[in-house]
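Work Package 4 report. The design task specified in the project plan requires that, given a folded chain encoded as structure tokens, an amino acid be chosen for each position. We show below one input record used in the internal validation round.
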């Protein structure tokens, strides 16, 4: 006797149904007349009539459009409308079957609840469904349904509500929407008396992801559960589970969507986990639908379900099927096993029927050979039932296990997985562990691959493994072919893995394979050759040719030189035809003749030629099939085009050559657009070689039409003009469908010009081919003036010289070119060209402009130019040379004008030019005092410079030593971490990365190559400001400049010494030689200190962070004893040299 522990709520009427919401926050209670909503504390929130007649808040409002009365149904339909509507008949509830209780079903989110209750209409007790919100508001009233039964279930995903009805001899499951409208229905199978009142539907229940609908049915002597799945809007009965004891409850697991819990009246609980799987044999696929099994022969075609090529009917529902080698086994719900054989007509014929034990649940039906079938039975114990089939009988054998078994498969032995995830291998009755790297949970599907001795498993955690080694995670389905394993991930990307790779199993290689996106929810069915079949979430089948499988097939064809089949397959499947070459470049080039002979089709070969490009498709597009490949020959396109073209043009059979001639034209254009003209000339030659003129014209028209497909009409027309064949140009223009007004006047204009060279000249001008135009124009008589004008207009003097160099008009052309060069101030070349044109007056003018007084005087003497014309020209040249500080040359010009007349001017120029010996030799006798004063003054000035240079060298060298010492100290402090790099780098950002041999600063990656930064650095290098970043660079540059001055001073000092001796000033000469010699010795000695032969880090000029800047812009400080990764050889880093071979000293003054 059950006693109430506590009374929390006392309804006024008899309770007919109650149900908690999924979150247990609201309790819905139905009494005989009312419905109440209570909180978890049993406080009434809302109370209302159980079957109100008012309209719900979300109920669909309609004025009758689309109803039965408004639809056209013909004469039969009109008569049917006159009678009563069977859908709206009032069929009373059968009290013998229906207990008149109220069914309540919440949706998964708890937002609304559906209530199936009994109420009276016109005195007849019928059932109706009302939908309420969790707050107790009426949402909608469902459309009345004749013969409605008490079962009710709300779909977890979406707004569908399922119920059943029995109308006449037909029982259906009907679906309503939230707004109360009936959406659709499906009829239950006829066997097991499902369509009679003898059978009652105890419950309807969806699984968690709403993919399976369980129907619990019972009658007096048995109970069973039907499991339905929808595909293409067709509900199929996939599994029937019978029980001898009555069932108490059928419930789906809340977390594992495919797991169902079933309890019987005797207290036993069964847990079943369902997984969608596809089994195929020789491209025959069987789909189960109760007693009907649909047979689809994929080799004949892809038929969208629920259609099929044939059907197999059985007396009982089919639960599982499996096939191998043309033998199919069918497991029925009544524990019968039927064996079918695939006949030559690809039809299934029954061979054997075998009864299994009634007790227990059979699952995981497998076949590993045409004569061997096995299945797992779960009863008082677990056992693998093995059946050996012969023509006379079927023998049973058992492998018993006390531990629950999940699945089994066959290799040379029997492999089973236990519920704890461990695998066992059974051979001749003995058991031993089957070694896997590690267990990865229950396996939903497994396949033994005999070729690689591999066990491929897909676990319940969606991990795909090979012999326990992880292949991929998040896998939804997989299928195995002859050479490949294909799988679709849970993010719906398909990958293909070669079975050979699974033996080595490189996870990185598999992870880097290219994906192919597929539709969400797609599942692999099977694969064959290059074809892959998938079932879409709606249920229809889709056939694709997987690229990876296709390339694998093409590789085999290419290896056997089956070029025609490979080319046809490539075009059909739109595969990059570069693969013909990229697969094995050397082999293809050696077999070009084989390729052309095998294909022997202009269209196919043209497709290959047009697809050629410089990239390697085995590296870029098809890298999955070609691991570890490198790039192809960059001259690939040129090599192939030349080989194929020479092969086609070398065909001896004239008819076959004409048939394949378009291939040669394609090779011309594909190799280079510049060869279009060669292609047109080849067309002209080939068409003219045809014996019959009319056939030749037809072929030419055909070939030109082919050219128009490859080359733009305008470009092709211009190339045709370049052949100077106006008939070809006219034909191209006509095929391009241009307006005749566009091209006829142009072509007629060309025809008017005679001779032929003149016509070619005008065509070249039209095509902007000026060099060719000039060559053709030069061949025409009596048009020299036009030729000169053409040369001037287009500045074609170089070409003109080349053409006319050995012709009669060469002098005129040289003169024309000389005038152009004179206008460009290129007087040297102008003088040369005027001499070729024999125009001496112009040559003199060029010499004057060049300030070449020597050549001017020589030519003027030769021509007999009088002094009246010569003197002004020389004075002009003297003035020009004086502006250029060419004092020695100015003195020579004045000497030619008259040494006595311009003596003072000549002496002044020699003083300015430091030509002391010449001054002494020429003017000491006449201007002794002035010459001696000038020599002495210059000697004293040089001595002053020598002293200044020496002091500056000392000052700069001493400062440089200090700067280098400071840099060394700073560098050592940075290496030891005793100094802040950020402050020394003047706010530049550094990052520290240390290693054994180097440290990296945080300096931002700035490029010193920018022109703006380069100018800033050059400006800093010229600043001698103490403490500057580039002070050592400035000091080195300043010292180097002094060295250059000292070196350049040697010649003048040598002349000064001789001049001083001539003037009788030996003491000053001795002093000058000694001091200048001492300076050179000092500078030579100092050079090895300033620019040491072996340099260290501190000897490198510039700031430390710039010295250590690497190529990537990052500053990395080397450790002690190491140098930077790279050193920039700046000009100041190169040691200057003072020449030692200059003979400037007087030996008499040297100390012995």
């Amino acid at each position: 006797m059950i006693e109430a522990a506590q009374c929390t709520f006392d309804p006024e009427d008899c309770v007919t149904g109650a149900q908690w919401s999924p979150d247990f926050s609201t309790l819905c209670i139905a009494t005989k007349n009312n419905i109440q909503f209570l909180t978890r504390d049993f406080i009434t929130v809302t109370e209302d009539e159980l079957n109100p007649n008012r309209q719900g808040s979300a109920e669909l409002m309609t004025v009758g459009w689309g109803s039965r009365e408004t639809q056209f149904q013909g004469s039969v339909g009109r008569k049917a409308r006159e009678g009563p509507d069977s859908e709206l008949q009032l069929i009373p509830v059968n009290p013998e079957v229906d207990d008149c209780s109220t069914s309540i079903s919440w949706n998964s989110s708890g937002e609304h609840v559906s209530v199936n209750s009994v109420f009276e209409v016109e005195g007849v007790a019928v059932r109706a469904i009302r939908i309420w919100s969790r707050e107790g508001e009426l949402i909608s009233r469902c459309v009345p349904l004749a013969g409605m039964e008490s079962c009710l279930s709300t779909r977890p995903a979406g707004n569908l509500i399922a119920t059943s009805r029995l109308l006449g001899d037909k029982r259906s499951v009907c679906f309503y929407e939230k707004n109360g409208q009936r959406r659709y229905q499906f009829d239950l199978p006829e066997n097991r008396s499902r369509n009679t009142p003898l059978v009652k539907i105890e419950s309807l229940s969806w699984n968690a992801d709403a993919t399976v609908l369980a129907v619990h049915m019972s009658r007096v002597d048995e109970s069973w559960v039907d499991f339905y799945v929808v595909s293409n809007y067709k509900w199929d009965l996939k599994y029937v589970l019978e029980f001898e004891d009555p069932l108490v409850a059928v419930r789906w697991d809340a977390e594992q969507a495919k797991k169902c819990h079933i309890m019987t009246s005797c207290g036993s609980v069964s847990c079943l986990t369902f997984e969608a799987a596809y089994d195929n044999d020789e491209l025959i696929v069987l789909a189960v639908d109760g007693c009907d099994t649909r047979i689809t022969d994929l080799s004949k075609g892809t038929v969208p379900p629920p259609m099929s090529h044939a059907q197999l009917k059985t007396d009982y529902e089919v639960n599982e099927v499996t096939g191998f080698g043309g033998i199919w086994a069918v497991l029925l719900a009544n524990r019968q096993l039927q064996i079918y054989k695939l006949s030559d007509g690809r039809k299934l014929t029954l061979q054997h029927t075998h009864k299994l034990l009634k007790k227990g649940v059979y699952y995981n039906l497998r076949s590993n050979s045409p004569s061997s079938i096995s299945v797992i039975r779960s009863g008082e114990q677990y056992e693998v039932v093995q059946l050996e089939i012969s023509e006379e009988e079927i023998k049973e054998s058992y492998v018993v296990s006390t531990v629950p078994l999940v699945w089994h498969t066959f290799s040379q032995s029997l492999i089973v997985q236990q519920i704890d995830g461990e695998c066992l291998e059974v051979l001749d009755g003995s058991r031993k562990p089957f070694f896997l790297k590690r267990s990865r949970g229950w396996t939903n599907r497994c396949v033994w691959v005999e070729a690689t001795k591999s066990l491929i498993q897909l676990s319940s955690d969606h991990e795909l493994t090979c012999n326990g080694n992880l292949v991929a995670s998040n896998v939804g389905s997989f299928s195995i072919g002859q050479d490949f394993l294909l799988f679709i991930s849970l993010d719906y990307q398909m990958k293909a893995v070669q079975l050979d790779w699974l033996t080595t199993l490189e996870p990185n290689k598999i992870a880097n394979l290219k994906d192919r996106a597929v539709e969400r929810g797609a599942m692999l069915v099977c694969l064959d050759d290059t074809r892959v079949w998938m079932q879409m979430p709606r249920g229809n089948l889709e056939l694709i040719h997987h690229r990876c499988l296709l390339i694998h097939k093409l590789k085999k064809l290419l290896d056997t030189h089956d070029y025609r089949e490979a080319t046809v397959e490539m075009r059909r499947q739109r595969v990059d035809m570069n693969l013909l070459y990229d697969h094995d470049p050397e082999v293809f080039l050696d077999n070009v003749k084989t390729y052309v002979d095998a294909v022997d089709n202009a269209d196919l070969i043209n497709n290959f030629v047009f697809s050629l490009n410089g990239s390697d498709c085995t590296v870029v597009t098809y890298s999955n099939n070609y691991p570890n490949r490198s790039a192809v020959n960059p001259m690939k396109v040129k090599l192939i085009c030349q080989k194929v073209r020479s092969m086609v043009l070398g065909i001896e059979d004239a008819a076959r050559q004409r048939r394949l001639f378009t291939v040669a034209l394609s090779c011309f254009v594909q190799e280079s657009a510049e060869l279009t003209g060669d292609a047109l000339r080849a067309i002209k030659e080939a068409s003219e070689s045809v014996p019959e003129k009319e056939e030749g014209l037809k072929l030419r028209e055909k070939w030109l039409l082919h050219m128009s497909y490859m080359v733009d009409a305008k470009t092709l027309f211009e190339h045709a003009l370049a052949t100077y064949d106006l008939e070809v140009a006219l034909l191209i223009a006509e095929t391009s469908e241009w307006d005749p007004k566009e091209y006829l006047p142009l072509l007629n204009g060309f025809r008017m010009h005679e001779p032929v060279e003149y016509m070619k000249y005008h065509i070249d001008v039209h095509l902007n081919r000026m060099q060719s135009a000039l060559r053709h124009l030069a061949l025409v008589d009596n048009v020299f003036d036009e030729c000169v004008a053409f040369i001037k207009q287009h500045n074609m003097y170089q070409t003109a010289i080349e053409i006319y160099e050995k012709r009669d008009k060469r002098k005129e052309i040289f003169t024309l070119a000389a005038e152009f060069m004179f206008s460009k101030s290129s007087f040297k070349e102008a003088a040369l060209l005027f001499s070729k044109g024999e125009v001496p007056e112009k040559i003199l003018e060029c010499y004057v402009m060049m300030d070449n007084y020597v050549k001017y005087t020589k030519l003027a003497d030769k021509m007999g130019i009088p002094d009246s014309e010569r003197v002004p020209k020389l004075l002009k040249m003297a003035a020009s040379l004086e502006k250029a500080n060419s004092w020695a040359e100015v003195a020579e010009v004045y000497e030619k004008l008259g040494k006595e007349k311009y003596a003072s001017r000549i002496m002044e120029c020699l003083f300015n030019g430091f030509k002391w010996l010449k001054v002494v030799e020429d003017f000491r006798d006449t201007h002794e005092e002035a010459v001696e004063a000038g020599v002495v003054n210059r000697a004293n000035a040089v001595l002053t410079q020598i002293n200044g240079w020496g002091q500056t060298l000392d000052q700069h060298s001493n400062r440089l030593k200090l700067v280098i010492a400071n840099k060394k100290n700073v560098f050592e402090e940075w290496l030891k971490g005793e100094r802040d790099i950020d402050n020394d780098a003047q706010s530049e950002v550094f990052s520290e990365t240390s290693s054994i041999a180097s440290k990296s600063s945080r300096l931002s990656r700035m490029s010193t190559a920018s022109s703006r930064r380069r100018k800033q650095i050059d400006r800093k290098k010229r600043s001698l400001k103490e403490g500057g970043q580039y002070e050592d660079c400035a000091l080195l540059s300043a010292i180097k400049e002094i060295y250059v001055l000292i070196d350049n001073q040697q010649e003048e000092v040598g002349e000064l010494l001789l001049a001083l001796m001539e003037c009788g000033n030996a003491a000053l000469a001795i002093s000058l030689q000694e001091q200048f010699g001492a300076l050179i010795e000092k500078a030579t000695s100092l050079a090895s200190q300033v620019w040491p032969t072996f340099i260290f880090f501190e000897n490198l000029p510039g700031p430390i962070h710039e010295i250590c800047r690497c190529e990537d812009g990052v500053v990395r400080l080397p450790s002690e004893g190491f140098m930077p990764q790279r050193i920039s050889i700046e000009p100041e880093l190169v040691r200057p040299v003072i020449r030692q071979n200059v003979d400037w000293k007087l030996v008499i003054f040297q100390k012995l």
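Confidence is low (pLDDT under 50) at residues 986-1009. Validation will be extended to a larger panel in the next phase.
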